[in-house]
Amino acid sequence: MKKKVISVLLTATMLAGLLAGCGSNGDTAPAADNAADTTQTADTAPADNAQTDTAPADAAAEPAADAGTDAGEAVTLKWAIWDKDTTPYWQALKDAYEAANPNVTLEMVDLGSADYMTVLATELSGSGSDFDVVTIKDVPGYATLVSKNTLEPLDSYISAAGIDLSQYGGVDAQITVNGSLYELPFRNDFWVVFYNKDIFDAAGVAYPTNDMTFEEYDALARQVADPTFGSQIYGTHYHTWRSAVQLFGVLDGQHSILDGEYDYFKPYYEMVLNQEADQICRNYADLSAEGLHYSAAFSGGDVAMMNMGSWFISTLISNIASGEYDASLCGNWGMVKYPHADGVEAGSTLGTITGLSVTSVSDNKDEAFKFVEWVSGAEGAKVMAETGNFPALMNDEISGIIAGMEGFPTDAESKEALNVSNLYLEVPYAENVSEINDILDTYHKSIMNQEMTIDEGIAKMNEEVGKVLGQ
Fold first, then answer.
1. Cβ pair 359, 150 in contact under 8 A
2. What are phi and psi for residue 270, nearest 5 degrees?
3. Strand ranges (DSSP E) for 253-347?
4. Measured between alpha carbons, how far is residue 54 from residues 137, 260, 356 in Å?
5. 330-362 pLDDT per residue, tens
6. Distance (Å, rounded) from C-alpha 62 to C-alpha 60?
7. pTM above 0.85, yes or no
8. What value does the mean pLDDT of the chain take?
9. Cα angle for residues 250, 253, 258 (degrees, 5° grid)
10. Torsion sign (Cα): 48, 49, 52, 54
């Protein structure tokens, strides 16, 4: 994977927008469900086995007039989404686009967030499907839809519209199928390290920095931890997703979950399991049994550091402001870039994307692509920012919105943490990505539950994924 430099900054919004949809678990702030579910999908993998026999549909025609005009016959675009009532940006995008394009009506169809991609695949496989635009929630689901020939290749449209794909920081290359793109990203989330400043202050320990090696990160977690029963402080915390441990290993840009050989996971499993043994972090088996959510862990005030996606930022801000989180426990927080291996550039991190596609059965492909182009472009990015979410595209106007964010940490390190050097998708496209995810998740659980040694678990990953890849 080529290293691409992108500057990703936190999107800002009025707190009213941020508060909408925040549930008791704390990770359901606007669109956080999408981001969290995408990560979870990387761990649990849908059953569908994606293939690469794409057999592209009819060549895409050149797009019609640019979005933002009122020319053209009246058209209704049917658009597949999830969680309409708790995700403010759906309605905001609809309203803004229809205002700029009076001849277009967007009909949103809410398929729900649970099993969204499976439901969508079923819908699009039916003879009666009449969707024009569909939202793509995760890469395994994307692979399935491409394999079923349900998505229109966008290359002709992209070329005719003169879209500069470099604005997406290299993500396009990671979702290209047999040389073609079938979606454009409009939302992007990435992983950082959150930390509790009060814990570091109480311990007299300097805050984390934006340029930590894994050795420095481990040492810092150990320095600030306190195993004293009744007043225990955990130096760090890992959610039960395999992403929180395994994917440290892909930050060098030389590896991915598609490799088929996973010995490079070993030092990260050793680090985390040694931290568990020394009570530097909570025990995986206990977390699984108790179902402790990462938001509850961090907001409880006994976790010094936690690696998690940027979707958690708006949750922290809104829930602290509303009083759902006790500000005396977690209100004084900051964030820094992911730790990195020796020789790897600081700011290398993992990312998840949400995209839009045109269906191969649409009778309105030109108008559908105009909408996709608008949402994934500068105007759509502005709407995303104004509703408290991360657009895939950044520009000066969006940065200006972000700069005025109330509740975001004011220290320079936290702001700098939002500048990402290299963004690697947690789940890049592959024909058998769902099966690979399932295998890696299975043996991650076995290792973390200590049902297998690290070496045994990795050997099984190599063996089973090797079968899938035909090695």
1. yes
2. -60, -45
3. 305-309, 333-336
4. 19, 23, 18
5. 999 999 999 999 999 999 999 889 999 999 999
6. 7
7. no
8. 85
9. 55
10. negative
